[in-house]
Amino acid sequence: MDENIKNKIEHFYNWYNQQRQNAMDLNYNFGRIILLATVDTLSKYAFPNMKNNFGKRFIKLIDEYSDWQDKDRISLPQLLILLKNKNHNKYKKEITLIENKLMKFQNDAIPLSYEIDPLISDLIKEIGEVDSFVHKARYASLLWKMRNFAVHECRHPGNGFAVAGDQPYPYYVSFIKFTNDNYNDYIETLEFVIPNEVISNIIINCINNLKVKFTNEGVNPFYAIKDSSSWFDI
After folding, report:
1. Per-residue pLDDT band at 109 (split at 50, 70, 90)
2. DSSP label at 115?
3. CA nearest to 175, candidates 110, 85, 97
4. What distance, in Å, lies between the first and last C-alpha atoms of the chain?
5. Domain ranges of the chain
6. Distances (CA, A) of 39 to 1, 21, 62, 83
7. Which of 91, 178, 96, 166 minimizes the C-alpha distance to 133?
8. What is the 3-state secondary structure (H, E, C) of the chain?
9. Which residue has the higher pLDDT, 186 or 148?
10. % residues pLDDT > 90 (the chain)
11. What whole-number distance in Å separates Cα of residue 70 and Cα of residue 140?
């Protein structure tokens, strides 16, 4: 391999690994923005020709390079919200099935393990794809949603918050919302949390796998990024 390309690949790996480490040293919320932006940027290196659908590109990176073992799990609470908001009557059977699944965990300790969520292949066998809503509630797709909230709005989607420290796996927390001024009636929900440690591990796996890809192909990774004075992607 050309020595210059080899050095470029090493620089790519070291640069993004350092960005990851720097982000983990920041305030939790600010660090999450940098981590998710880094995942987004890595998708550009992996698939430089996918310029018109950033969401698909981001999710494709997760699917092909992240080695995230939970990427194909389906968030039952989020799928339930989707189905109820879209058409409660049309999806009555599916809603009842999901509610019954979640009822089994109502007395479990909080934070609740991600293991309450099934793999997409298992859930589809039970309820089908439900007009593609199952795919929208897949962890890989939810990470893209999380990226959008963090980068564009500086906030976490839903009402989730990190109560279990920076764990290397997702989990659920219980959120109570009072429905009157007397605080004697409330709604309790399960809120999904993807900790920064999970995103950090995704970045490590992605840069490792991309390094292998670029090395095997003898490709300069920076060909995906234009070296130009222009602020425009032209």
Report:
1. low
2. G
3. 110
4. 30
5. 72-137
6. 27, 13, 9, 29
7. 91
8. CCHHHHHHHHHHHHHHHHHHHHHHCCCHHHHHHHHHHHHHHHHHHHCCCCCCCHHHHHHHHHHHHCCCCCCCEECHHHHHHHHHHHHCCCCHHHHHHHHHHHHCCCCCCCCEEHHHCCEHHHHHHHHCCCCCHHHHCEHHHHHHHHHHHHHHHCCCCCCCCCCCCCCCCCEEEEEEEECCCCCCCEEEEEEEECCHHHHHHHHHHHHHHHHHHHHHHCCCHHHHCCCCCCCCCC
9. 148
10. 65
11. 8
As a whole number, the mean pLDDT across the chain is 90
Contact 140, 71 (CB under 8 A): yes
Residue 161 one-letter amino acid:
F
Query: How big is the CA angle at 117 (ends 33 and 126), to the nearest 5 degrees?
Result: 135
Contacts 24+ apart (CB under 8 A), 180-189: 189/77, 189/159
